[in-house]
Design brief:
Number of domains: 2
Shape: globular
Length: about 475
């Protein structure tokens, strides 16, 4: 059930969206978004003093939480004193506050990604020859990443080209490339910025705990991150950046730039001219993700799981956030007011059964897992205190952020006995022969017969089959 902190910050079993204030189009409520669940009655934690139930203070925290928090910060001399006062007034376990900080940190990174893509990739481009030349500059790793996070849809090779020509889809693709790198190489890194000695220690720890679950590993990993032999760290301990943090950030920045440089060449012949602007922006983005990754690692009570989202899957508003929400509303086939002049009546009727599908998977959502039931207000990750009878109540999960995707209207791929079996008539005007193709097979990409001979990338091509989204 939602707690008071959950109501304040939008987190209980589901987290509020970044654009929560936006009222969805009525047609989307039925067709594009899930049916809203009925509100549950307010839950008062057992640890909250009875005198505060229904009080004016609770109303202030519920209706104007930021204003109340600012007044407390202004009143107390140190942030630690203000922190304790806020915790005392709300009467929530510490994980409620940590969840909010992790969620807001992820949202901030997502916003930085979007601003970065808007600043450097908002331009017009429809030169097919120039796009083909850019494809030839892509490394096997870049080709694999794009093939993992995006789909050209039923439009054949032109479907892939449209992802680079359409400004909004191009920006979504750039965000997806960055998001893929951040999740796999930063957030899911065992110890971002650590040394080889740290990794050897973690490897030994993983071997020793190979028969345990993730919670057992979480209890020990913070000792490596903090550089302490103790597995119980006081919450007041200062977290210092590991010695290789800056070097690790620079490696990730260079990797991202390698991936996005060919796309930037659609606008500039020499993207290195923008290096003085692009590199600082990427460094800030990656460094923020690295610090947040370390914060996740030092919580001994929580396992943060990046819940995967898949391309060409049905959009589910309960678990996903749409990058192109406004466009999806405007082009809703069952509520569309205007159609392009070339669309036939038969195509309009066919489109009535189209679904909202994920075309680009930008970033996985995050779910926090914890052992046990409800915790008291005195509980923190280092000294967990359960309410009476709650300690053995399984594992709790909290969705902190939704998966971030870019969508399209259409029909999903059809397979029979593991082989593609699509009917062009089902996809209508969107279908272009031969329909769904892999990015590596697009002209100029370099993983076809010509590319295999030129780049010697046969091994890389074979490895692409193991991608979780391919």
């Amino acid at each position: 059930m939602p707690s008071i902190a959950g109501k304040i910050h939008g987190i209980h079993e589901q987290v509020a969206r970044r654009d929560e204030a936006t009222v969805p189009h009525p047609a989307l409520i039925e067709e594009y978004q899930p049916t809203p669940e009925p509100e549950e009655p307010e839950f008062i934690p057992v640890s909250k003093p009875p005198s505060r139930r229904g009080s004016k203070l609770n109303d202030e925290w519920t209706n104007n939480p930021n204003a109340r928090a600012r007044r407390i910060v202004e009143r107390y001399r140190t942030t630690s004193e203000a922190r304790e006062r806020i915790k005392q007034e709300l009467g929530e376990p510490e994980y409620a506050f940590r969840d909010t900080e992790i969620r807001d940190g992820l949202w901030q990174i997502m916003d930085k990604m979007e601003r970065f893509a808007t600043k450097f990739f908002s331009f017009e481009s429809n030169d097919k020859d120039r796009l083909t030349r850019s494809f030839r500059l892509m490394t096997p790793e870049t080709i694999k990443v794009i093939g993992c996070v995006a789909s050209g849809g039923p439009g054949g090779q032109d479907g892939w080209r449209d992802l680079f020509f359409d400004e909004q889809q191009r920006r979504a693709l750039v965000c997806a490339i960055i998001g893929n790198v951040l999740v796999e190489q930063v957030f899911q890194h065992a110890f971002f910025g650590g040394t080889m000695a740290d990794f050897e220690t973690l490897s030994t720890l993983q071997e020793r705990l190979r028969d345990e679950d993730g919670n057992a590993y979480a209890k020990h990993i913070q000792s490596v991150v903090f550089g302490s032999s103790s597995t119980v760290i006081k919450p007041t301990t200062t977290l210092r950046l590991p010695p290789n943090f800056s070097a690790h950030v620079n490696i990730i920045v260079a990797s991202i730039f390698t991936h996005i440089e060919p796309i930037l060449r659609l606008k500039q012949h020499n993207p290195s001219n923008f290096a003085t602007e692009i590199y600082p922006a990427l460094y800030d983005l990656v460094a923020s993700a690295g610090i947040l990754s370390l914060h996740m690692r030092v919580d001994p009570h929580t396992v943060y799981y990046f819940t995967p989202v898949f391309k060409e899957d049905n959009f589910r508003g309960k678990y996903m956030e749409s990058f192109n929400h406004a466009h999806m509303v405007a082009t809703h086939p069952r509520d569309r007011k205007t159609w392009p002049p070339h669309v036939s009546e038969d195509e309009k009727r066919r489109a009535q059964n189209d679904d909202a599908l994920t075309q680009i998977t930008i970033m996985d959502g995050v779910t926090a897992y914890r052992v046990g039931g409800w915790e008291t207000s005195e509980s923190d990750p280092w000294r967990v205190r359960y309410a009476e009878g709650s300690e053995a109540k399984g594992i709790r999960s909290r969705i902190l952020t939704h998966g971030w995707v870019c969508c399209r209207w259409g029909r999903a791929r059809r397979f029979v006995d593991g082989r593609p079996k699509d009917d062009p008539k089902v996809h209508g005007a969107a279908w272009k022969h031969p329909g769904f193709v892999e990015f590596r097979d697009v002209e100029g990409v370099g993983w076809g017969e010509e590319g295999l001979g030129r780049k010697g990338s046969g091994a890389a091509r074979r490895s692409s089959g193991g991608s979780r989204r391919a």
